[in-house]
Amino acid sequence: xxxxxxxxxxxxxxxxxxxxxxxxxxxxxxxxxxxxxxxxxxxxxxxxxxxxxxxxxxxxxxxxxxxxxxxxxxxxxxxxxxxxxxxxxxxxxxxxxxxxxxxxxxxxxxxxxxxxxxxxxxxxxxxxxxxxxxxxxxxxxxxxxxxxxxxxxxxxxxxxxxxxxxxxxxxxxxxxxxxxxxxxxxxxxxxxxxxxxxxxxxxxxxxxxxxxxxxxxxxxxxxxxxxxxxxxxxxxxxxxxxxxxxxxxxxxxxxxxxxxxxxxxxxxxxxxxxxxxxxxxxxxxxxxxxx
Length: 291
Hints:
Elements: H1 5-35, E1 37-38, E2 46-47, H2 51-58, H3 60-93, H4 98-105, H5 107-110, H6 113-123, H7 130-137, H8 151-179, H9 183-191, H10 196-207, H11 209-225, H12 228-233, H13 245-255, H14 259-290
Antiparallel strand pairs: 1-2
């Protein structure tokens, strides 16, 4: 029996889709079930109605951690996008040993965020950090800077560490978009007298805007929900200034053993991320398919 390529591809993807749905739907359904229970490892487990959700919405830690996560996510995404644009355009112009340079550029992506956090914690150390050492040797500062003890500096330090980890992901997506732009477009612009900055602003960026959108949304989603950097970098301090919403969730689960409240918070985070990320990704993918 002969079938079309589209039907054959659909049939080949069915087992993987079924397995993915099982791995996603069962934990999600169980999490929703737990969010309606009084499940704290102390009292008997019983149905709790909407009390867990009411507690979450009445907690000041929720709004503070959401604000921290939003600022951190936007800042980290912006820095990673800037680094990714620079790296992608630099790698796009390299013709000799391009494989070596491209491999080196994605190495930070291979390191887990927790490990990266510990590494940057040493680098930002007040007494032993390499950053303070270099700043003093260059004459920029006269005394060590407390990067992880001052509120705003600790948040900015987390953004810098995170952007270093996610910049390779940005670079890969943006470089793929740059490779798809015909070289004749740049040659025509050069004949018309356009310099490199004008080529970037009027050719590279507009023709690569869908990759920029998709990469930015994905990185923001990861940084908004993932507290790994702050888990190892600051632990949420000082004075909860880097208290990421993911740390709030981890504390409910493992420190306070409030599994029902943790389930309610995780469902709320899923709804927030889905309400923002999925429409943006759908818009970017649909606009690209129509163009």
